[in-house]
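Just scan my protein:

. . .
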Amino acid sequence: MPTKAYHRFLNRIAYYNTDIELCELLVGRFFQTPHSDENLAVALGSTADIHPSLSRRVNSRNSKNICGNHLKSTLYAAFIKDLFEDFSAFISDTMTKAALAGIDPARFVGEIRLDLHAADILATGNWDAAVRLVSDAIFRKLENERNTKELLRKASARLGLALDQNVLNGAMPYLDARHILVHRDGRVDDLYVADYPQIQVREGKIATNYQFVGDARRAVDALARHIDERVIAANLVRNQDMSGRRQ
């Protein structure tokens, strides 16, 4: 039985899976529609007034390929970005639940120094909320590393998880891809290419295609599941924080 944190992560990526599959089917059908001299808006049953951008494109094979493939590429990039954000939320939630389960405070906090105001702590109103306040502050400090692998290493050390490096390494190309997609429009640098030679690059950019997002989903899910299993094995989760259990 997984934790609620991992169950939430699975539910989130399930929605993304549906988006990806629906896009694949709809764009595939779009490619199969007959070509004509009409513009795309009219060919698809609309008008230039309603869809002016589509009306500027002719209903040709080349035009449809450009539009359809750009839509897929945009959705794939959004998938990688959201996958990273939801994985980060899973790690943050896992750390909070571990703190509530009763972890060594000295190891959990480590070398981090926090600037928390007494008013903010008192305003939480209860112990669980106060622990979340502290845990979230610690996670934000770890995020300042701007290095996902180092963040995971420090989070793992705080929880004493000793993660399998093969599982971690399998997910890193896709977690690091988020920074490339957000800050470099997908254009890889020499470091990314050297670290992840197995990732396909096309015209200097990460080839964000159906295969890439599928591999990303499987690798990041494997890491999240591995972390969840280690947390449960270490008794760092309360009974009420397990999936299927009431608060």
